[in-house]
Amino acid sequence: MHLLDNPIFNALSTCQANFADSYGVLRRFPSEVTPLGGFPEANDEGFAALRGLLAKGGGLGVFLPSRMSPPDGLEIMLEGPLLQMILENGSLLPKSSKTHEFVELCPADVPEMVELATMTKPGPFATRTHEMGTYLGIRKEGKLVAMAGERLRLPGYTEISAVCTHPDHLGHGYAGFLMTVLAERMRSSGEVPFLDVRPENTRAVQLYERLGFRKRLLYHYAVFRASGALA
Description:
It contains 5 helices and 11 strands, in the order αβββαβββαβββαβαβ. Helices cover 23% and strands 32% of the residues. The protein has an 8-stranded mixed β-sheet with strand order 4-11-5-10-9-8-7-6. It is globular, with a radius of gyration of 18 Å. The chain is α+β, with helices and mostly antiparallel strands. It has 2 domains: 3-81 and 219-226, 3-Layer(aba) Sandwich (Aminopeptidase), CATH 3.40.630; 85-217, 3-Layer(aba) Sandwich (Aminopeptidase), CATH 3.40.630.30.
């Protein structure tokens, strides 16, 4: 199995093991980092560990090979297909003369980062998500209007995530620019960039394809909780 076939579990078993909280075969990030976790396989043992963890309350997002009915004792709060894309040929990154001023975001920027991610919904983003890697932002008149950063890290691979732009500042190429800066940095360090996107988000998929990303894998995202748990 390729490392990217099970990226959350493999990240928590390797480059991001420092974040890992374990429950049986299950590994998860602290919820304030990101509400994601994974197990070696989506089988009885994996779901038993997930059931035991969620018996205490809360929810957890996992990546599954395909859509499946929730096992006994669990229910799904949110689900959908997820497209994994990968950038193996950096020569396809645009060589544009148009550049934008950007900053490397820091802990002091977290309230604005969370606010922007909450508004634009690029995926889960919590108060400690910025600890997973480098996050870059673009400010206009002092306000954070676009950002992108690094989330999952595995040997040889780094995920680009939290790609978002304020609705009032679309159309300036901010997202593609920030992604290009991140991808070039990753490749110069010997890392292959990858990302996850909802396949129905055609605008984003088309942008990523223009940057040279290719579709690699279609899997399924599901947020589980214990059956009968209060919302």
